[in-house]
């Protein structure tokens, strides 16, 4: 992520500067195109005065060749400029998407805070596209301004009053167009916010569709989305009305300006100050000016919407990180000794816990909030409010977050699968180690899942693994965590949807495949706890008991109730 705190103006400026060579090339070609367009009525005026009025065939043929050459040049320049310009916009949007993806995937976190995944997707697509369109619009704007200048110069050669009228009239028109675009900018920002929120809600509802159906809450979900969608629609309509008003007002101002040029030209022709050919050229230039003004109207609207989108992108890029990054890197062969020293965070209250290297430890937390906060600390998704978490004697706050996660893997209970084959899902964290993948499939009983699928491990899974049952998804997710083969592995309730026979088999295989490496099971499953070396019980956010599973079952009624309920 770039240094400093980016603002909307910074994001917009960086997008344009990144495409500077393309924008300059497209602008030069666009200026040439617009210049040739402006010269067409001038040449036609010359033809009238020098050929038609005099009856000279040779002069007519000569100027027709010049006119044909103008059309050839402007046509070629237009095609080339359009291709380069559109490419600049697409490249700018692509680089912004990469920058957003880098920030969202930053191991320090923070970009996803208070933002739904669908909202982030909308920002990375719609907003990035609108900011990229500004790079496209800039070259169009430069071309339009060049056309106005060339037209003014041509009119000055025909008549000084006409030329001065254009030169003095253009700046106020551009200023008024900028002022008129302000409401459009505000409403465009609101439109994008509402659209992003609607996308986020839709993605959220689709992800939980099965749960909603099971609860019979479809009508409530539909009502929620209808309200969100209507808000988004209302914002979009307001933005559309604002854009229509903006374009209409600018075109009205332009029309009045062009009419004034035509009237002044007609008066000068009647007065004998200009010839008939010069009058035709002046009227043609006045009509031609409508194109550049319409182009500037488009550019104004694109820049207004681009500024609004740039601010939204800047908010994501400038999101404060959840955890600060350290610089130390765990050793390649980390021993895996975890220690919590007086850790307090959320539901945790001064937890002191020693997890020896190579041990298989079970942790029972009756309060789900305490389990969740413990996982956040171990994964370093949050730093403790008090106390420290250490890996091999080094505080996690001193370690680089990305390097830490290559040593410590926390596999959450609700881990999602990817829309890919079962094998690709499992080996996504295995660093190409085929042996680790095979062992992980067997240990998690995911090989049984593969045998039931039409193409085995090469079967393509639906988004988030919805083509599998809950138990099958858990086994594939567990296989992925085991295949990563990290020195420290923390599993949170990895078998809640698995039948008891399969769970018992997984428990014993898990112990074997993780032998010699630190493994922590945050669970209340008696089958998993039975194979651990020791069990730590968290009660009211602190360590209340510590011992072997069988000993705790016999001596601790509270523990017995927690794991046998």
TrEMBL record:
* Any one GO molecular function term: ATP binding
Which keywords does this chain's UniProt record carry?
ATP-binding, Membrane, Nucleotide-binding, Transmembrane, Transmembrane helix
- One Pfam annotation, family name? ABC_membrane
What is its subcellular localisation?
Cell membrane
The transmembrane segments are 23-48, 60-78, 131-152, 158-177, 248-268, 280-301
The record's annotation in SUPFAM superfamilies points to: ABC transporter transmembrane region, P-loop containing nucleoside triphosphate hydrolases
* Stretches assigned to the ABC transmembrane type-1 domain: 24-305
Instruction: Please verify whether the record's keywords include Amino-acid biosynthesis.
Output: no
Instruction: State the membrane topology.
Output: Multi-pass membrane protein
Q: State the CDD domains in the record.
A: ABC_6TM_exporters
Q: Where in this chain does the record put each ABC transporter domain?
A: 333-565
Q: List, alphabetically, the PANTHER family matched.
A: ATP-BINDING CASSETTE SUB-FAMILY B MEMBER 10, MITOCHONDRIAL, ATP-DEPENDENT PERMEASE MDL1, MITOCHONDRIAL
Q: What is this protein called?
A: ABC transporter ATP-binding protein
């Amino acid at each position: 992520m770039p240094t400093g705190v980016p603002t909307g103006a910074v994001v917009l400026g960086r997008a344009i500067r990144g495409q500077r060579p393309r924008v300059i090339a497209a602008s030069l070609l666009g200026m040439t195109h617009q210049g040739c367009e402006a010269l067409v009525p001038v040449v036609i005026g010359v033809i009238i005065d020098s050929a038609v009025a005099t009856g000279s065939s040779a002069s007519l043929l000569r100027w027709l060749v010049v006119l044909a050459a103008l059309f050839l040049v402007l046509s070629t320049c237009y095609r080339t400029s359009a291709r380069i310009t559109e490419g600049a916009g697409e490249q700018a949007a692509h680089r912004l998407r990469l920058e957003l993806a880098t920030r969202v995937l930053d191991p320090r976190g923070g970009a996803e805070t208070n933002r739904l995944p669908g909202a982030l997707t909308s920002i990375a697509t719609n907003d990035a596209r609108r900011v990229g369109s500004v790079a496209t619009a800039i070259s169009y704007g430069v071309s339009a301004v060049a056309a106005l200048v060339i037209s003014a110069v041509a009119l000055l050669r025909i008549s000084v009053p006409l030329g001065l009228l254009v030169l003095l009239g253009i700046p106020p028109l551009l200023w008024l167009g900028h002022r008129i675009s302000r409401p459009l900018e505000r409403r465009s920002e609101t439109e994008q916010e509402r659209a992003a929120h609607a996308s986020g809600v839709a993605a959220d509802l689709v992800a939980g569709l099965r749960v909603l159906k099971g609860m019979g809450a479809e009508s409530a979900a539909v009502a929620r989305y209808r309200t969100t969608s209507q808000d988004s629609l209302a914002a979009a309509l307001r933005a559309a009305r604002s854009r229509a008003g903006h374009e209409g007002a600018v075109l009205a101002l332009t029309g009045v300006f062009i009419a004034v040029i035509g009237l002044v030209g007609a008066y000068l022709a009647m007065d004998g100050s200009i010839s008939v050919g010069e009058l035709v050229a002046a009227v043609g230039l006045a009509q031609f000016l409508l194109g550049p003004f319409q182009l500037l109207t488009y550019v104004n609207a694109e820049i207004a919407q681009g500024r609004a989108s740039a601010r939204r992108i800047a908010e994501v890029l400038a999101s404060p990180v959840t955890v600060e990054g350290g610089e130390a890197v765990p050793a390649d062969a980390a021993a895996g000794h975890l220690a919590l020293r007086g850790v307090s965070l959320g539901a945790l209250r001064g937890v002191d816990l020693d997890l020896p290297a190579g041990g298989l430890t079970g942790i029972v937390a009756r309060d789900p909030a305490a389990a969740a906060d413990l996982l956040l600390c171990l994964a370093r998704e949050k730093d403790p409010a008090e106390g420290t978490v250490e890996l091999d004697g080094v505080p996690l706050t001193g370690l680089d977050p990305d390097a830490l996660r290559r040593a410590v893997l926390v596999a959450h209970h609700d881990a999602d699968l990817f829309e890919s084959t079962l094998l690709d899902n499992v080996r996504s964290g295995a660093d190409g180690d085929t042996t680790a993948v095979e062992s992980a499939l067997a240990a998690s009983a995911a090989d049984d899942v593969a045998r039931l699928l039409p193409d085995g491990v090469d079967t393509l899974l639906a988004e988030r693994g919805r083509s599998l049952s809950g138990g099958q998804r858990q086994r594939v997710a567990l296989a992925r965590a085991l295949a990563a083969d990290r020195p420290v592995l923390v599993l949170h309730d990895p078998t809640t949807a698995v039948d008891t026979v399969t769970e018992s088999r997984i428990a014993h295989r898990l112990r074997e495949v993780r032998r010699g490496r630190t493994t922590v099971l945050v669970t209340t499953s008696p089958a998993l706890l039975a194979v651990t070396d020791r069990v730590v019980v968290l009660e009211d956010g602190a360590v209340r008991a510590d011992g072997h599973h069988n000993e705790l079952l016999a001596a601790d009624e509270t523990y017995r109730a927690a794991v046998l309920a």
